[in-house]
Amino acid sequence: xxxxxxxxxxxxxxxxxxxxxxxxxxxxxxxxxxxxxxxxxxxxxxxxxxxxxxxxxxxxxxxxxxxxxxxxxxxxxxxxxxxxxxxxxxxxxxxxxxxxxxxxxxxxxxxxxxxxxxxxxxxxxxxxxxxxxxxxxxxxxxxxxxxxxxxxxxxxxxxxxxxxxxxxxxxxxxxxxxxxxxxxxxxxxxxxxxxxxxxxxxxxxxxxxxxxxxxxxxxxxxxxxxxxxxxxxxxxxxxxxxxxxxxxxxxxxxxxxxxxxxxxxxxxxxxxxxxxxxxxxxxxxxxxxxxxxxxxxxxxxxxxxxxxxxxxxxxxxxxxxxxxxxxxxxxxxxxxxxxxxxxxxxxxxxxxxxxxxxxxxxxxxxxxxxxxxxxxxxxxxxxxxxxxxxxxxxxxxxxxxxxxxxxxxxxxxxxxxxxxxxxxxxxxxxxxxxxxxxxxxxxxxxxxxxxxxxxxxxxxxxxxxxxxxxxxxxxxxxxxxxxxxxxxxxxxxxxxxxxxxxxxxxxxxxxxxxxxxxxxxxxxxxxxxxxxxxxxxxxxxxxxxxxxxxxxxxxxxxxxxxxxxxxxxxxxxxxxxxxxxxxxxxxxxxxxxxxxxxxxxxxxxxxxxxxxx
Length: 613
Description:
Blueprint: E1 2-16, E2 19-28, E3 36-41, E4 47-52, H1 55-62, E5 69-77, E6 80-88, H2 94-103, E7 108-112, H3 118-125, E8 133-141, E9 154-159, E10 164-165, E11 175-182, E12 196-203, E13 208-212, E14 221-223, H4 227-241, E15 245-248, H5 251-266, E16 280-284, E17 287-291, E18 296-299, H6 300-307, H7 315-323, H8 335-340, H9 344-378, H10 382-385, H11 390-405, H12 415-422, E19 431-432, E20 442-446, H13 450-457, H14 473-476, H15 485-490, E21 491-493, E22 500-502, H16 508-529, H17 533-553, H18 567-590, E23 593-599, E24 602-607
Parallel strand pairs: 3-9, 11-15, 13-14, 15-18
Antiparallel strand pairs: 1-2, 1-8, 2-3, 4-6, 4-7, 5-6, 8-9, 8-10, 11-12, 12-13, 16-17, 19-23, 20-24, 21-22, 23-24
Helix pairs in contact: 7-9, 9-17, 11-17, 13-16, 13-18, 16-17
């Protein structure tokens, strides 16, 4: 048996002999030697939870199915202890086929966690975090059996026991950026007739070039004779250097899509995967995403749209925002004219092509560390995380924490539930319009992490909410609602709405956010105390990732598709927020501060002492 350590880059599963086999993709890190690894785990099985109406009768009905195993398990359901039936199936494909049949049984109340993809279930249950180092124990097997591409570069392991997560810093990744230029005399290019004229490549391992059928006089150009040779040179470059990460800009929607269409037309095989598989597209959200097995592909256009608020998201605009300088640019609708010219115009086109990939790489180098850290926090594959909305990232973080805390996650809403939720809106934070004029002696008051702090201090969580605790219409009409002393001791009572949240025990989501904020404070202390620039940078990225996660979680209570959706929780957060800022403004006025503008979690005021009056 061999023991290996590798950075976990990606995960999927395949079917062998009618059984699901998890595949872990990574790169070995051992005394300067680096080999790629595909590790196979044949032991993991899919499962769902069943809520029975009557335990014995339900088990009798389930016995009619050919399941791998059925067992009683003690879990929490929104904080309440409950007994579930854990039903283990033989193959992940059985879950969508059988879940409705199981749910419709007369003795089944409901089913849970039936919609978690198999590979994500594996990461959660095994406590593995992509982009972290893991330890593998198993037998090395003949890689040529399942590794068609360069088997001599790949270690294939059959695992004897579960992988183990190791503490590790940022992974040192081999990154390659790419971009294509297309002949476009008719405006929008058409892959049926418009050829690819250049493919630019730039990486942190010595690659910086443009592949083209022209430009042999330029030292950064790799000259080929035909478009077919250009595409093959692109494939060969990836195979030769085996990057961990390929980045593009709008590469899901354009570059890889166009490359695939042209390669099919010209008979070029895009067998880029570590296992010899070809480039393919998977559905992620509302779009198709380009997938290379064993090599991560990230479309930076999607990442930037989620992490920056700009008027437009062109490569030029994003680069200007991040670096404060303009990149070299040419008019996109005139590129074909530069291509058909000689001399300086053609040179400018080559310069433009190279600048595109160098710029894309620089953006990746700046923005990806935050996404790498979020991947290590959320615990889902980097490929998936860069295509998730921030609310989805928060939900998958909570899914992992639910497993750690022994909670069974709520289901996503049904179509009817979603329709009911969709029309509901939550009143936002308090806003005082700015007073017109010039003001002096201005002071800013700001609440630190107001909403996350409110969730913790007021224990705002679906599992701590007292059902039907909002005052009735008749009570609402009274001048003032009176609460008993016992209520005040036992509950946090929401201003404006009257919802009641138990003060003890701490709810699931407040406890998770508390962990996030505590961890952020710990990392900030280390960041401020460090004298090592690289260490300081790492701590800075880590605490920023935690900040983003915490700030996302308060908003998802009101998100219609959220598993832990609660309109009461969403309303309680903003109501307490409005109450706190108004009360603070009142108190500040007693000390000579006159509020001139307020928005959600802070306000500006002018100061005038009594002796100045």
